[in-house]
Amino acid sequence: MASKPEKTLETFPNPFTSRDYHIHMEIPEFTCLCPKTGQPDFATLILDYIPDKKCVELKSLKLYIWSYRNEGVFHEAVTNKILDDLVAVLKPRYIRLTARFYVRGGIFTNVIVDHRKKGWQPKPVVLLQEFNSQSNIRE
């Protein structure tokens, strides 16, 4: 049976709740529609989070992201909506979503939103590692 878009985000228990650790994901195939023109908008989503009790299950995240393919929505709105939905199910210690939209009318748009759990403080020297963009081909 083929998969289909789904708005439900599934989780699984964080296997290491006693420590802060950084989960980094790159989602290079995000699409939605421009609410003004109906033309497709393309973006790479970069998700970074420090889980608390739950982690997001990858297949459900993929189907959730796919569910925006035919929705007309502004870049700012969709980025904030995705973050809000992730915060609602994960209740993470910290989460940041960066949406890097491809050029439209000569303008690149980047929208960055984050959320910090109330009372959570990073340890004194928490540096989130930079990751180079990944490619689907080997060099």
From TrEMBL:
The gene is queF. Its EC number is 1.7.1.13. Pathway: tRNA modification; tRNA-queuosine biosynthesis. The keyword Oxidoreductase applies. Keywords: Cytoplasm, NADP, Oxidoreductase, Queuosine biosynthesis. It catalyses: 7-aminomethyl-7-carbaguanine + 2 NADP(+) = 7-cyano-7-carbaguanine + 2 NADPH + 3 H(+). Catalyzes the NADPH-dependent reduction of 7-cyano-7-deazaguanine (preQ0) to 7-aminomethyl-7-deazaguanine (preQ1). Belongs to the GTP cyclohydrolase I family. QueF type 1 subfamily. GO terms for biological process: tRNA queuosine(34) biosynthetic process. It is found in: Cytoplasm. It comes from Nitrosomonas oligotropha. GO terms for cellular component: cytoplasm. The active site is at 34 (thioimide intermediate), 41 (proton donor). Pfam families: QueF (PF14489). GO terms for molecular function: preQ1 synthase activity. It is an enzyme of class 1 (oxidoreductase). This is NADPH-dependent 7-cyano-7-deazaguanine reductase. InterPro entries: GTP-CH-I_C/QueF, NADPH_dep_7-cyano-7-deazaG_red, QueF, QueF_type1. Gene3D superfamilies: 3.30.1130.10. Substrate binds at residues 56-58, 75-76. The lineage of its organism: Bacteria, Pseudomonadati, Pseudomonadota, Betaproteobacteria, Nitrosomonadales.
